[in-house]
Every structure is written in structure tokens, then in C-alpha cells.
Amino acid sequence: MKQMAKIILVALLAIVVASCAGRKKMQENPEITAETGEGITAGIDPEIQAFMDANGIVDSGRYNLSDPLSNKTIYFEYDSSSLDPESDMIVQFHAQHLASTNGSVVLEGHADERGSREYNLSLGERRGQTVQAVMSAIGASNTDVVSYGEEKPVSEEYWQNRRVELLY
Amino acid sequence: MIPQANQQTVNNMIKMFFTQRLNPVLFALIAVFAMPANAVLEIDITEGVIGGIPIAVVPFLNSQSVPQDVSSVISSDLARSGRFDVIPETDFLNRPTDARDVSFKDWRLLKADALVVGKILPSASGYQVSFQLMDVGRGLTIEGRSFNVPGNRLRVVGHHISDIIYQAMTGKPGAFNTWIAYVTKSGSKYELQIADSDGYDPQSIRTSSEPIIATAWSPDGRKVAYVELNKGRSTIWIQDLAAGQRRAVAQFKGNNSSPAFSPDGRRLAMSLSKDGNPEIYVMDLATSALTRITRDRGIDTEPSWSPDGRSLLFTSGRSGKPQIYKVSAAGGSAQRVTFQGKYNAKASYSPDGTKITLITNQGQGDRIGLLDVKTGVIQQLTKSDLDESPSFALNGEMVLYATKAGGSGVLSVVSDLGRVAQTLRVQQGDVREPAWSPVYRKL
Fold first, then answer.
1. Residue ranges of E strands in B136-177
2. Cα gap B227→B234, rounded to integer Å
3. Are B400 and B391 in contact (CB under 8 A)?
């Protein structure tokens, strides 16, 4: 099932990246997005929306889904280093982009302040490694993982600190 | 060293603090002691000590006119231990400075069990500090000593006297004449500091624009190990305190963290992810040879040694959430130690090996816990919810840890009976990552 989703997504990405026509369509037909339900980012590419619908991925509001590559921060659940489906999708956009441009990126892992400092240093690294593994599976292997644990929070909101930053 | 002008203010504030008799019912008394920038600003928050030994410490002769008020150091120390109920000076009927001038019935009226009197007299090398400890019930002097010290050692001798009193009254060694190490953060400046156990007289050991974490003392108290981050990479350093020099002992690919000296000082346990996953290793410090101790897919980190040097406690996520495990220092299979709560981490033994302190989350946030080694039961010592880095005093009866108060990182001391007796904070920024020295300071 997951393999199938990946193939579909790669195909979708090929369409999105290869042509700007898709984006132009969105701007010319704003009523397409206005009709959709609440919580949908304005201007999501219809093919991406279809992919999300097919895989039960809901727009959580954490990511700008109308411009996936603009999201340079990937978020995680408390004490977890696994990617939820929406976050996994964003990583795959980046991976595809990196693979096709032969680019490199540093994956900087972080954690929120709860729990012990040293365990969080490892948790940040593990989150970076999860993103690295997804990227590697798509052929983007110029990645480097570093970790700051809980040492560099960006917000009072815990969820915003449980993150991997993509540093190009 | 605190300038004398400031010290007078400090003395007055300490007096104010102790003029109120501590109500056994929980309430907070806050006295603020202002100190030079970058120094540790002390805020005392003391819960009333129920069942503490009632003791009166009479201001020593000349204590107000010498650079440090030795009798105030003693009163604060005893109050901080959570085991004494220090009687306020305003209750005193008179103020003897020698055992010969003591009328015991005055002190029995105040329900004191013990009384401390003393003198500070100028001497050739500085000051002669003498004290006498009396058992009020029996009307006897049970301790009396005299010390000759230079002016800049008055606080040290005060802490040493506190240790003597503590031992005489409780039968256990005190832990007042010791150091604490900790990290301060102000903006993007991190500083590893060492101070007296009450936060006075901090010395800067290392300053960095990148985070410093995981402080650990060598068993002889001569070195401190710590982890310094650099662009998201981590290195374990060992720094010699007297020489001021440091060397990098682990700088492998991946995370290098959690240094812990073995009791004989010859080995350093650590957590390294160089082989793909954070595992526990033991390094021989003379040869740098590494022995791998754990081998599993979970995060393994925060090793700490048993007092006999034969086994290690460590934090592992192998069963889903972090829990404490125990493993032989030579490697082998690990046994789980914690079975209460959903998150247990950063465990370390008391020096006698009968207790383990740790971070424990049993549904009310991260608190400091005390695990009885024999029964395996974890008791929560604190009532806050963001506690971390617990470190035993060398007598195993107090735990120093980091927590948050008023939005800032602060340090607190809690006795193993669960009474929070002191909070230390800096004027600007946060304090964290404390470690209590395993040795006494020299007089």
C-alpha cells in the first residue's frame, strides 16, 4: 500500500515540478478551492489534494500545502520519531527535488523541553535519521543529520519545537 | 568574591528571613539576595520543616564586622538540609558567644534541642573562628573546635562547621562544604560554572556560544566532563579544573554524550551513536579503548555507575518509552529497573547504593523521584512538572536538580525526605544541568 502511494506521489511530483500550468490553473479558478471543506489551504494543487484524499491525509494546518517545498520544517509527535502521513508527504517532495537536482541538505533534529536533556539530544538525532531514511529511499542521499535536542526551541508551543529543520 | 558592601545587605536580608518562625503549615518565604552580575542570585523558598531538629545558631562574636557572616552561613546550611528547624533570632532571650555564658533554661523555653555559639577573632593569618555545639536537653557541650583561616575562606569554614554540626546531630556526614557545577544560559552565551553548594562565589570554567550539557564530576573532584555542541555536532570534553586545560575524549560521527566517570576514575561511560544508533560504551581513559555495552535498536543513553563500579544504570527507549535499565560494566544483557510511570530517565545511585534518584513521570509531569533499590518502589520527591538532572549530594540525603520557576530555568535542592529547601537562579537567563561534587572542599 505504501509502495503504491510512493509511486503515485512520484508521478504527481513529476507533473507538478515539470509544469507551471497546474499552478496557473489554481489562480485562474479560485472557486475550486473555495468549494472545498474547512482546514484546506487555499490553492492546493488538485492532484495533491486528490492524493491526500486517496490516502486519508488531512491538512493539519502545520504545512503550506499550496507550496510543499516552502515547508523547511517537518514536525513530530511527542516522544516520537516517526513521520505521520502528511509530514511524510512533505519530506517526499523535498526528496524528489533533491534527487532531481542532485542537491544536499543538512537535517537538524530538535525536541521539546519535556523529558531529559540527553535523551532529547538522541531523539532529535533519531528524527533527523527518520527523514534521512525516507529521502534515501527516493534517491536523495546527500543528507547529513545533526541534533540540537531541546537546546534551540523556537516557540513556547511544544509542537513547534518537535521538528527537523531542512537546511539547504 | 562578594564585595563587602553587598555582603552587609546580604547579611541584613538573611536576618530578615530568619526573624519569622517557620510555620509548620506550608507557606513560602522569599528573601532575595542581590549579587554581582553573572553570579548566582539566591532565592530561598523554604517549606516549614515539620519534625526537623530545633536548633538555635546565635550570631558569632564579630560576625557582622568580618567579610563573611559565618553564623549566617551555618544557619542557612542547616535550614537547607530539610532536617533542622532553625529558630529565629528574634526569639532569643540573650546572645551568648561562649558555652560558659549559656543559661540552658532560656533555650529549653524556646524548645531548642541544640545550640551553637561562636567567636570570630582577628589572627595573624586572618581570623580565628571557634564554635561550640551544645545539647540543650542534657546541658552539655558536645562539639567545640577552632580554625585559623584567611578572610577569603570564611564561608568555607562556615560550611565545614555546618558539616560537623550535621554529623554530630544526625549521625550522618554533612554535604555543605562541597561544590556544585552547573550551566548558565543568557541569550546565546552558555557558561559552565562551579560555585559553593549554596551558590556563592561562582567561578567560570568554560564559556561558549553553543550549548553545554551533561556535566559530570570526576570522583576526585579535580575534573569536570561535559558535552559541548557545535553546529549540531556534539563532543565530550574533560576539563582539569586547576590547570584549566581540557581535552576532547569523544568526537565520533553522530552524537557523543552523557559522560560518567567510573568510581575509580579510570573509565568513562558514555552514549555514542557512531554505529548508527545511540548505545552505551565504556572508554578506558588511559588508552581510549572503547568497550561497547549495549546492542539494541532503542535509544540507550545517560549511563551512571554503581558505587562498586561493576554495573551501570542507563536510560533506554527499547520498550517504547524511556525506562531505566541495569547492565554489567563488562556488557551483557540488561535488566529493567523501573516499572512505575510512563517515562523514567537520568538515574543515578546514592553513594551507599541503597537509593536511586531519577526523573520520573507518573502522569503529573516530570518530577524528581527516589527509587528504593530493595523494593523497586519509586517515590516522587517534588511536586513540580519540568524537573530534570537530579544529582545526589555526597551524603545521599539531598538532591540538586534543575527545574523551571517563573519562566526561567533554576536549580533546587530537595532533601530525600521530600522537602524543597532552596532555589538558586541567575539574574538574567537560566541555570541548568547541575552536578554536585563527590568530594569536600579543602579548608
1. 140-149
2. 6
3. yes
**B201 Rama sector, left if φ>0, alpha if ψ -120 to 50, beta otherwise:** left
pLDDT at B265 over 70: yes
Q: With 0-12 CB in 10 A as exposed, 13-18 as middle and 19+ as buried, what is A159? A: middle
Write the pLDDT tens digit of every residue in B109-140: 999 999 999 999 999 999 999 999 999 999 99
Please judge whether B278 and A147 are an interchain contact, meaning their C-beta atoms are less than 8 angstroms apart: no
Q: Return the pLDDT at B46.
A: 55
pTM comes to 0.85
Phi, psi (deg, nearest 5) at residue A23: -65, -40
Burial of B252 (0-12, 13-18, 19+ CB in 10 A): middle
Say if residue B171 is exposed, middle or buried (CB neighbours under 10 Å; 0-12, 13-18, 19+). Answer: exposed
Residue for cell digits 554503581? B306
The count of residues in chain B is: 443
Query: Residues near B5 by Cβ (< 8 Å), separated by ≥ 6?
Result: none
Residues in chain A: 168
Residues whose CB falls within 8 Å of the CB of residue B346, separated by 6 or more in sequence, listed in order? A116, A118, A119, B302, B315, B358, B359, B388, B389, B390
Q: How far apart are CA B346 and CA B334, in angstroms?
A: 16
Look at residue B406 in the predicted model and tell me its pLDDT.
Answer: 84
What ipTM was estimated for this complex?
0.86
Looking at residue B386, what DSSP letter applies?
A: B
Q: Which residues of A touch B233 (CB under 8 A)?
A: 146
Interchain pair B273, A125: CB under 8 A = yes
Q: Do B302 and A119 touch (CB under 8 A)?
A: yes
Q: Are A145 and A129 in contact (CB under 8 A)?
A: yes
- Looking at chain A, which residue has its C-alpha nearest residue B230? A148
> What radius of gyration do chain A's Cα atoms show?
16
Convert B191-214 to b/e letters by CB count within 10 Å (16 or more is b): bbbbbbbbbbbbeebbebebbbbb
DSSP letter, residue B28: -
B438 φ/ψ sector (left φ>0, alpha ψ -120 to 50, else beta): alpha
Mutate to test the interface with B, among A117, A129, A156 (most CBs of B within 10 A): A117
Strands ordered across the beta sheet of A163-167? A73-75, A163-167, A105-110, A143-149
